[in-house]
Amino acid sequence: MAKMKTEVPQYGTIMQKGIQYYRTRIMDADGKQVSLYAATCEELYEKQLEARRQVEEIIFRRQHPTVAEYCQKWLLMQSAKVSASTLRGYTADMKNYIIKPLGEMYMEEVTADDIRLALVPLSKKSEGLYSTVNMLLKCIFYSAERSQILEHNPCVGISGKGGKPAKKREALTDQQVEVLLDTVRELPPYLFIMLGLYSGLRREEILALQWDCVFLDESTPYISVRRAWRTEHNRPVISTVLKTKAAKRDIPIPKCLVDCLREAKTASKSDYVISDSEGQPLAASQFQRVWQYVVVRSTKPRNYYKYVNGQSIKYTVTPTLGMTQRNQPKIKYTLDFDVTPHQLRHTYITNLLYAGVDPKTVQYLAGHENSKTTMDIYAKVKYNKPEELFSVVNGAFHQNAAD
């Protein structure tokens, strides 16, 4: 049986620069008319068929995106709302924990079981990472549901709890604070640590702090939080976009910090309270080197690797408190407790609560947007001191007994 020959339509013509072309118009995926040109009717017909196929594919993809495609679209929508560093974090987490297991599936194909299976490897990761990926999954599928891409959201009923609980950081004791300050006095991290302990600023707030926001000669000296430090490709970026609206605040500072800042300002040649040798804000790697002055003076176990007979052998060394480092005698192991930059801020907040400052005031000074964050710390501080609750409990039951 002879194959039927496809009838090629007759197209109109147009002259361009003295040359005749055949022309037709089609609707693109956005509903706009676009023109197609060719030297022959047969060539134009092939172009028309291919263009229609591409339009149909685009429309299908819009209505039936894969998980990978919709993740990219969601990230693009978020780029106008979140900082560059937050977007980088979202992108990395999506690539590793969402797109990798689910990316090739169409959004409408994903079931609750697929979501649970994707979360299984995260059960061995930190609680924070598990929570972040769980949040991203729900945001993606809720967004697709609102856009009517999905009839059913597979994330409904998926628990947000999972992962390994993070090691809880306790506030430093007064004795630990004293040891820490004695250890780093005259060293690069001293001013950073003083700011953390006695103003409660976040790391990004300390590293963005400029002298125009430090008021030492007022009747009540204070620091005004107006800028935040972030990094892009290790380079510092100083922005007026703070973590939350509540982060914008004025913090009265105690005399010990006033004296420390006054001395630092006298010696400073930069607009920044903490800067590099050229007066610029610190890069991420520079801050890590500054904090290393603290790390190397702790008795935290260290792992070393040596090659013996072609094999890498792991050695764990635990420094002894009070001893000096073998290769650098000036470095003495004086810290027998862990300390992180965030722990300084946590110590500040805890000390305010220990001093009886009301939680609402603490919330303002800490720059907490959500009162729950402050109240969680408050409850821990208050209820970890049974001696203070004894009279309350005793009074309550004594009253019941009298009744």
TrEMBL record:
- InterPro entries with a match to the protein in the record: CB, DNA_brk_join_enz, Integrase-like_cat_sf, Integrase_catalytic, Integrase_recombinase_N, Integrase_SAM-like_N, Tyrosine_recombinase_XerCD
Give the Gene Ontology MF terms in alphabetical order. Answer: DNA binding
Residues annotated as domain Tyr recombinase:
167-394
The domain of life is: Bacteria
Q: Could you tell me which residue ranges the Core-binding (CB) domain spans? A: 65-141
Looking up CDD domains in the UniProt record yields:
INT_ICEBs1_C_like (cd01189)
Keywords, sorted A to Z: DNA integration, DNA recombination, DNA-binding
Q: Does the record bear DNA-binding in its keywords?
A: yes
Task: State the Gene Ontology BP annotations.
Answer: DNA integration; DNA recombination
- Gene3D superfamilies attached to this UniProt entry: 1.10.150.130, Intergrase catalytic core
Q: Does the keyword DNA-binding apply?
A: yes
Any Pfam family = Phage_int_SAM_3
What the entry lists under PROSITE patterns is as follows: CB (PS51900), TYR_RECOMBINASE (PS51898)
Q: Which family does it belong to?
A: Belongs to the 'phage' integrase family.
Q: Please describe what this protein does.
A: Site-specific tyrosine recombinase, which acts by catalyzing the cutting and rejoining of the recombining DNA molecules.
From the Swiss-Prot or TrEMBL record, give the protein name: Tyr recombinase domain-containing protein
The major lineage groups are: Bacteria, Bacillati, Bacillota, Clostridia, Eubacteriales
